[in-house]
Amino acid sequence: MRIGLLTGGGDCPGLNAAIRAVVKQGTGEYGHTIIGFRNGWRGVVDGDVHPLGRQDIRNVLPVGGTLLGTARFHPREEDGSMDAVLATVEAEHLDALICIGGDGTLHAASRVAEAGVKIVAIPKTIDNDVEGTDLSIGFHTAVNIATEALDRVHTTAESHNRVMVVEVMGRHAGWIAVNSGIAGGAEVVLAPEEPFDIDQLVKFLRHRHRAHANFSIVVVAEGAVPREGSSMEFTQQLGRFGEIVAGSIGERVSAEIAERTGFDTRLTVLGHVQRGGEPTPTDRILGSRFGVAAVDAVSAGTSGVMTALRGERVKLVSLAEVAGRPKRVPEELLRVARVLA
Ligand code: F6P
């Protein structure tokens, strides 16, 4: 078989582990040819191919990012790029495509599958908001980075009697905020799932500083928003492609706390630090398992599915059923973050 492979959307640690597994399993176990595409769907549209052999995947396991490159680009019917994808699939004589991506890439993959191309997808995003899988590649590393940052911020907060606001990634879901907040002992976690009340937050901080502490850590997911009708109005700043501008909610929350409490307050925006560097063993293992499972699925003639971690097992789930449905943090986990404040 000739199998196309791409990584789309934002990069993350663990992608190279998945690429390596696809190449090793595909060429070694089945004798397939793996045709990589540079820069996600953009490379498929442009026919920018990078055939992948054993020499390309040497020493990549601990390396962050993606050796194929990636782009925030999705093929569309309206501008002819979907036709260009189909033309490349035909020109390269591909039997199937393995697409590694987050929600946008998977949504596009589902439409390419509808157009008749055999597709198997692998979920990755540090945001961990892909429906249907317990974990996406990159999330575990991001939580580790954010937790380490919170531990570090903690000691300086305490020394200076400060409120430290730490903004972490998470546009539609607060998985990184909630998990790193619990692991890093944050006093408050603001996640998109639960619009917050600034008055309550300020009341809590005042009480805490009066009663038993001289510092506080407030973790804010970049997609957090104030509750409608509360005393803080906020319009999310969006960039050219509709993406959230890093720091906008963090800056605002930090300013409101400083103004309303008079406490010395500082902001740290972790930003892309969360997406860089070495993957944790968990992400290397997850990427490897998903890569092997994707090749097995393609080889069995399966299409329109995504590899997913369900409990201890890697399973295949319907791509159409999960694409475009962000997975939110469940109430049970939000509650743990709340009660441990
Ligand atoms: O990949 C998800 C994500 O890291 C989001 O958490 C964040 O909002 C976005 O990507 C940033 O995207 P970019 O790298 O395009 O600035």
**Poorly predicted parts:** none
> Strand order of the main beta sheet, please?
3-2-1-4-5-10-11
Major beta sheet summary: 7 strands, mixed
Number of individual domains: 2
Radius of gyration: 21 Å
Round the mean pLDDT to the nearest integer and report it. Answer: 96
Distance between the termini: 54 Å
Envelope shape: elongated
Helix count, DSSP H or I runs of 4 or more residues: 11
Annotated CATH architecture of the largest domain: 3-Layer(aba) Sandwich
| Bound compounds | 6-O-phosphono-beta-D-fructofuranose
Pathway: Carbohydrate degradation; glycolysis; D-glyceraldehyde 3-phosphate and glycerone phosphate from D-glucose: step 3/4
Subunit structure: Homodimer or homotetramer.
Protein name: ATP-dependent 6-phosphofructokinase
Binding site for Mg(2+): 103
Outline of the structure:
With 341 residues, this protein is α/β, with parallel strands linked by helices.
Folded structure, characterized:
Its main location: cytoplasm. Catalyzes the phosphorylation of D-fructose 6-phosphate to fructose 1,6-bisphosphate by ATP, the first committing step of glycolysis. With 341 residues, the chain is of the alpha/beta class. It is built from eleven helices and eleven strands. A seven-stranded mixed sheet has the order 3-2-1-4-5-10-11, with helices on both faces. A four-stranded parallel sheet has the order 7-8-6-9, with helices on both faces. Helix 1 links the parallel strand 1 and strand 2. Helix 1 runs parallel beside helix 9, helix 6 runs parallel beside helix 11 and helix 7 crosses helix 8. The longest helix is centred in the middle third of the chain and has 22 residues. It is elongated and about 70 Å long. The site of 6-O-phosphono-beta-D-fructofuranose has 14 residues, from loops.
